[in-house]
Design brief:
alpha+beta; 2 helices; elongated
Length: about 180
């Protein structure tokens, strides 16, 4: 009984830190018909992104390319993969997420997402604001729809883990 009381005391009185939340891109569509899929982890306590795994698909409709006074033309926007460990920044005033596929290189690709609210650890859903989305040095494509949603850890996982721990404690008590 004494061990149980100590365990409850430790669980109830410990420091409360929110865990980082996995956010998933859903229904993100660009103005050229391409899409963005994937996920990233955001820790609101430290204001840090991690585990970035986002991919964009090739466009369907050609986009106008302004070549600075040279011959302008239309081109299909190619897809790109944005992987974990890349540069990301969060600006609470603008709710932006920026990433490049390879850190510290001359890669021409940049993905920028503007959320409708500041990402929190509350398992909410936020719209991705329309407008600028992905670009290279020469041309860009905008986002026409999409949102990010927190991926909750099912309550059953926590309940199952608690049950296993309790069973182990009871078995140990009998021995």
């Amino acid at each position: 009984m004494k061990n149980l009381m100590v365990l409850v005391l430790l669980l109830c009185c410990g420091s409360v830190w929110a865990t980082p939340v996995v956010w998933e891109l859903r229904n993100v569509v660009f103005d050229d018909g391409g899409i963005a899929t994937g996920s990233f982890t955001y820790d609101a306590d430290t204001n840090q992104f991690s585990n970035i795994e986002v991919a964009t698909s090739d466009g369907i409709t050609p986009i106008f390319v302004d070549s600075d006074g040279e011959t302008d033309y239309y081109e299909i926007f190619p897809g790109e993969s944005y992987i974990s460990g890349v540069w990301a920044e969060f600006n609470p005033g603008r709710y932006n997420f920026y990433t490049q596929p390879i850190p510290d290189t001359e890669s021409p690709y940049t993905l920028a997402l503007r959320f409708s609210g500041e990402l929190e650890d509350d398992l909410s859903t936020y719209s991705i604001l329309t407008g600028f989305g992905e670009s290279t040095y020469d041309f860009e494509r905008g986002i026409v729809s999409g949102y990010v949603a927190a991926v909750p850890i099912p309550a059953a996982v926590w309940l199952f883990g608690s049950g296993l721990g309790l069973l182990g404690w009871m078995k140990r008590k009998r021995a």
